[in-house]
Amino acid sequence: MPNESARTVAVALIAGLGVALATVAAAVVTGSPALAAEASHSVADTANDLFLLVAQRRGSRPRDERHPFGYGRESYFWALIAALGVFIAGARSPYARASSS
Amino acid sequence: MSVEARLAHRNFLEQSAATSDPSLRAVFNEDAVSIVGDVSALAGVALSQIIGSSVPQAVAAVLIALVLIRISLRLVKRNHDFLLGQPIPPADRDRVRTFLLAYPGVTAVRELLVTYVGPSQIWVLVRVNVADDLRSNQVTTLVRGIEADLEQQSPYIYRVDVVPIGEDEADP
After folding, report:
1. Could B45 and A34 be called an inter-chain contact, meaning their C-beta atoms sit closer than 8 Å?
2. What domain count does chain A have?
3. What ipTM, to 2 d.p.?
């Protein structure tokens, strides 16, 4: 149900922010390419959770005259954008350097 | 409908509705990949330290990238399917059909469209044959009854439209 999903996304966002900060710090300290890849991944995850939060907010509006089926599909649109974000994060992660992530 | 039948039908569609939420799906996938990624990164760093070569780290970085790309393509496909209009699983569809046929006055289910209009939001559009001896106000009562009943069957049913057609009417 919507409230439950919103909470799931909010928790993921906060936890993701923590993971992102930790991996970025670890990547900077060690200079490891694997950790740099992971760090860029974590940062992208956090950004994606923002998209999913938008999906939750916009998708849970009640139906109106112009939208007799409601706004539920809005969720799929924003989740699609978030999925593209995961793709980009994956494609560029091997090229990430600790200094630029 | 008897009380037993109502109870048997309660919470139907629950399973498939749970899988229709793109946020939950994305978050679970992200978290799973994060753990896999962190573990491979750690293994890569540790192995590189032990054997003194940067190859394991590079392999870990590429592995993380491949897993991310694979997951993202799955998510894209999933969202694409739901945007296009995803029908519910056949078993759930059959349940809705059985539910409709249990109504006195409904003689056949001509066309049944059960589709997602959003996460955990199902739209039911159905054409039913109604017994020819029903008067028009009885048909109206029957249709309203089915719509209200079906909407109560599951919190995931967002909207129900029942179109009654006479028994001898040809398919439109």
Report:
1. yes
2. 1
3. 0.73
